[in-house]
Structure to design on (313 residues):
């Protein structure tokens, strides 16, 4: 009688080696009708699925449907797949399933190797959680730094930019005006008789007036305008790409809105007015210092001429 080709499980010592492996192993055979036949499984595989197998040729019908589905996918594409064995405690054991050909002379025979990667997956998950937590902390720190930086350049009462940030803005806007050959205007504004208002109604009312004026300036400004609280009751506005006529129109609009506003203190209505001086690049100066100085001189002229008006240097 002629012997057929040897199968891996017929090699001397195969059974002992196969059964001693701690990883689940299965010897499979793909039949001509593409169905999968389970030839042998080791103890680790049988314990994994709580199988009680007595026959030499073992069926797949005792295995979970999702496992069989992944096995069929694996046999079809010959690429590793992953499968999760869930327990009643919602724990999941992750397995990487891949095929090996132990006998090149029998291409229909495969060895299914199931590698338990649960600890790796748990470690990766923990590492990802730690990475996400670290990223969140870094984001929080960055946001905190931004808030601190913002607070350093903002006036706490009006939320306008403060004077410390003025030079940086002026140099940047002047550089853009020079490069693009565009005009630029600077308007200096000051509340009229503010010291008297403070003395009569108190500093709290004075702060309320400053807040109100800042809100009016913001509402009536363009998105490109840059507003500063220059100090005390003084404000400064940088107007990019704005000529003298446009700057005067904007300043007059601010003046009129502030004059029409009313504030109540000590059971009476307080009327507020402001004076404004403006200067333009390049007519009145080509540096930040010269432009601010020219706007300040124009403001002084507006005060001297009777207040509640706009003057240009």
């Amino acid at each position: 009688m002629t012997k057929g080709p040897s199968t891996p499980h017929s090699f001397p010592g195969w059974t002992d080696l196969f059964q001693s492996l701690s990883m689940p192993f299965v010897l499979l055979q793909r039949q001509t009708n593409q169905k999968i036949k389970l030839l042998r499984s080791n103890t680790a595989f049988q314990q994994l699925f709580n199988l009680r197998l007595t026959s030499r040729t073992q069926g797949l019908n005792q295995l979970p449907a999702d496992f069989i589905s992944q096995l069929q996918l694996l046999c079809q594409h010959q690429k590793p797949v992953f499968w999760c064995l869930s327990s009643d405690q919602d724990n999941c054991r992750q397995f990487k399933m891949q095929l090996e050909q132990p006998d090149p002379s029998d291409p229909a025979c495969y060895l299914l190797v199931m590698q338990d990667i649960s600890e790796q997956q748990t470690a990766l998950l923990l590492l990802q959680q730690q990475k996400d937590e670290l990223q969140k902390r870094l984001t929080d720190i960055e946001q905190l730094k931004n808030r601190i930086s913002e607070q350093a350049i903002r006036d706490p009462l009006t939320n306008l930019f403060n004077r410390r940030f003025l030079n940086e803005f002026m140099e940047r806007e002047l550089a853009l005006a020079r490069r693009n050959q565009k005009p630029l205007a600077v308007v200096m504004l000051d509340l009229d008789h503010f010291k008297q208002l403070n003395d009569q109604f108190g500093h709290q009312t004075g702060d309320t007036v400053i807040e109100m004026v800042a809100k009016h300036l913001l509402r009536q400004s363009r998105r490109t305008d840059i507003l500063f609280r220059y100090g005390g009751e003084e404000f400064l506005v940088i107007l990019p790409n704005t000529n003298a006529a446009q700057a005067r129109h904007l300043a007059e609009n601010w003046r009129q809105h502030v004059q029409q506003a009313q504030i109540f203190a000590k059971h009476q209505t307080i009327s507020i007015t402001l004076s404004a001086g403006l200067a333009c690049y390049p007519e009145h100066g080509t540096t930040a210092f010269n432009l601010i100085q020219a706007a300040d001189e124009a403001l002084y002229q507006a005060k001297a001429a009777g207040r509640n008006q706009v003057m240009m240097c």
Notes: The chain has nine helices and 13 strands. Confidence is low (pLDDT under 50) at residues 1-9.
